[in-house]
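hey can u check if this looks right to u? its 294 residues, i copy pasted from the old doc so theres a chance i mangled smth
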Amino acid sequence: MSRSTGTELGVARQAPAVCPPEAGEAHHGSPPVRDDDARIELLGGFRLVTGREPARIPAGAERLLAFVALHYGAVPRSVVAENLWPDTSECRAYASLRSALNRLRGAGCRLLEAGPAELALAGGVGVDFRDLRPLAQLLVDCSVVSPGGNACLGLGASEIEALSQDLLPGWCEDWALREAEEWRQLRMHALEALAARFIDARHFGHAVWAAGAAVRAEPLRETARAVLIKAHLAEGNQSEALREFQRYRSLLQAELGLCPTPRLLGLVADLRSAAARCAPTADRPRHDAPVTSG
């Protein structure tokens, strides 16, 4: 996700003079007013948590909060309006934005700093996606810079679980779909890189878990399946590795009419050869030894 607010999520437009920000809205010069300990969760679905309790807000306000939370820093009102209300006139989009801001304030939530031209999250409001994305990017970057590194950065089950979550699942707006797809690609690469580091560190249980999360998210993704097979092989579980390959080969043929690449075939070439050699012996009928007289 780019930090730019005027590229991937729309090109900023100047607000028309006839549709200025509402007079009663707070400006950046005012002290920020917010809910203490508020947190916006975007991974696995939208949730607003204040303190330790989920909070209910209007659906339109959810979209507004989610859009602003996906950005780092302030977002031009023009970008917010044109992305959240793309099928209306510019003036009506601004009116809808003002209405959403009023509904949010009416629900008792002080989560946004509203300036004359920009919106931003109030200071101290946490966002799970903002917290996790830098870690995912670091895992991908480190896998490129030091692919043989064995440091797992002190990571474990909670990080694997977090990287297994989709961004705003079920949201169908264009801006949400773009962000969700970019996150899907990043988290898949991050899970694969994390699994590889767990293998190098001989943390095989976590390696299988991380690779399995990537496979469950994208069953036809060969790189995810390959790292899962490598994890089984590194642990010495040949049968698991071979079964995983066979499941993938059958699925790939059934869904797309394709065969695994030579690279994946090379991972299990020795196992397949050994299994082929053992098959006739295993299938040969057994006979009782003849009884000899003493």
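DSSP finds eleven helices and seven strands in the chain.
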